[in-house]
Structure formats: C-alpha cells, structure tokens
UniProtKB/TrEMBL annotation:
Domain of life (superkingdom): Bacteria
Keyword terms: Signal
Species: Zooshikella harenae
Protein name, UniProt field: Polysaccharide deacetylase family protein
Subcellular location: Secreted
Regions annotated as coiled coil: none
Pfam families: Polysacc_deac_1
Lineage: Bacteria, Pseudomonadati, Pseudomonadota, Gammaproteobacteria, Oceanospirillales
Domain NodB homology: 88-168
Database matches in PANTHER family: POLY-BETA-1,6-N-ACETYL-D-GLUCOSAMINE N-DEACETYLASE, PTHR34216
SUPFAM superfamilies: Glycoside hydrolase/deacetylase
Amino acid sequence: MFKVFLLRVIRGFGVFKLLKPLNRNKLLILCYHAYELKDESQAFPKLFIKAETFQKRLTSLRKAGYNVLPLNTGVDLLKRNKLHGYNAVITIDDGFHSVADVGIPILNQFNMPATIYLTTYYQQKQTPIFSLAVQYMFWQAGNRTPSLSELEPYTQQLTHAEHLDRQQLMWALIELGEDHLSQQDREQLAQKIAKALAVDYETIAREKLFTVMNDQQIQSSFSPNIDIQLHTHRHQLPIDQQLTTREILENRYALEQLLPKTYDHFCYPSGFWHKQHWPWLRATNVQSATTCEAGLNRPDTSLMALKRILDGEYISQVEFEAELYGFGELYRYFKRFVIKIKHYIKQVRHTEDSLHARRAK
C-alpha cells in the first residue's frame, strides 16, 4: 500500500518527531469498538481489533509520551483550556462482550483509563446484534446465496425480492429485521438465514461475537479506571427532540439500574449528529458528546461535537503513529486548505462565466 510505504519513509526521516508539537496542548480522543474473539476483524476491520494490535497501540501511546486521561478529566481540562503537553482519552463504543474479555484486561495491564459508551437495547436482550450477525453470516458463506423459499414467510414482506442480487438481499433482510420485526422474529429470521447459508448461528450466539456485555460484566468492569457512559438505548438518534430525549433517558435509566452513578457524557450512535441535537442533549444534562469526525480537540471545539480518531484492524501501525505525532492533523489541515482553494477557484470561474455571458448579450 503506497500510503503506508510513504508514511514509513516520512517516519524514517524523522519528520514525525518534528511535527509532534502540533498535538501539544490538545486532546486526542481515540475510538474503539470491539476486540477479536475469533475472526471478526477479517469481516469488520473497522469495528474489530486484535488483542496484539491493541497492545501495540497502548505501547505507542506510552512511548510517545501521552498522558492518558479519564474522559471527564480530559473534557474538564479542555473546557478550561488547562491541557498541557500531550493528552489522550480512550473511548470504546457499544460495549461488546469482547470489551470485558479482551479490552479491559489489556487496559488494566497498562493501567490506562477508558470510557465505555454502552448501548442498552441489545444489552438487555443478550442476543447477537442482528445487523452485524447477518453481515457476518453472509461473509462466512462466501458466494452462497439463500433461496427465497428458505426464508419464508419473511421474504413475502420484501418488495421485488426475486430481482435483488446477493448484497441487496442481505441489506433488505437487515432492514426488514431492524425496522419491521419484533426481537423474537428477528432471531427466527437470523436462524433461517444461517440455515440457508449453511452457517452455524448457534455458535455465533454462544461465543458472543456480536453480543453486548451482560449485567455482571458491566458491574465488574466499572472501576476507577473504567467508566460507563451514554450511547442511546436503541443505537439511533433521530433529528426529533422527543425521540432524542427518549433515547437518552431510556439509556440512562437502564444503566442506572446496573450502576447507580452519574451519566453525563454521550457518544453519537454511528457517528450521526446534527447541531439541532445540541440543545436537546444539554436539556438532558449531557455535558459532552463525541462524534466520529477525525481530528484533535482544541479549547474552541464544541463539547457537543468532540472529534475522535477511529482505530481498528484496518489501520496500520504507522498510520496510528502518524496521528500521535501530528502528521494526521497536518494532512487534514492541508486537505481542508485544498478544498477551500478548489471552492474559491470554482467561485471565481463561475463569476467570470457570468460576466462573459452578460457581455455577450
């Protein structure tokens, strides 16, 4: 991969260390999702990371001289413009079973704090997250395609199902399950899909590849180093005040039944956010909200739209180090600059074309 090769060359010439001051007195927030238990990082390299890769990341943070802070401390120092040196926060979205089995033991080994943004609908159900399970089964099945007759009566609810290709059918089934079926029917559909694809769904469920932590895991995970915070109940956040409020309050209530504590930090599900959400979140006593927008956080960054660096098995070690040493921020700066120049040139050309058109008349 040319990008990785180029970054290695740049690192070899010592450019990373020269750029590191770009990250000084700012807040780097890292985002993780889940840890590989079997082969999930091959199917979902953006969501899953191997234990050994995660260990390398934490080693790099320490070697680069970063002070890894709890989220509430990092946000407070950012708000008061009191960040000094190189500071990072580790966040983990969703709260998969593998976080308790793999992620937290590694964090404890390095004595580094982290915040888990926990979604609660599937946490209460303790069944595999439907959309991920279906994608994983299609991935496991290779080129096999389920016949519509094997998925009845559910396929009767799909419009023009016979004209859908394999990928389209997969997403149509996911949409059907998530938007139109009860939890019980979703499970039955998942089992039918597994049988049609000759995949073992029971093993997926038993090994908890896509299952959120259970009550005991959550309670035992919470410690001075590991915090639990808000991530909506149903992993969705419509642009609607009533529905947004419901998602936050139901999420908070479910968490309070497990851990009676303060929940005032939030993560937008799937990274989807809009400025309209901000006053609604503040009305529910949310103090900060993290996005999936890449970048570092400065004192002028809105606490309702904190930036993060998404990490996973798809990111090489040198790409990760590029973020620690300022090259990632420099690259984004020049990318924004180039976009502005292109926009300016486009406006100038549009103005010139308008003038020529007027003169021609």
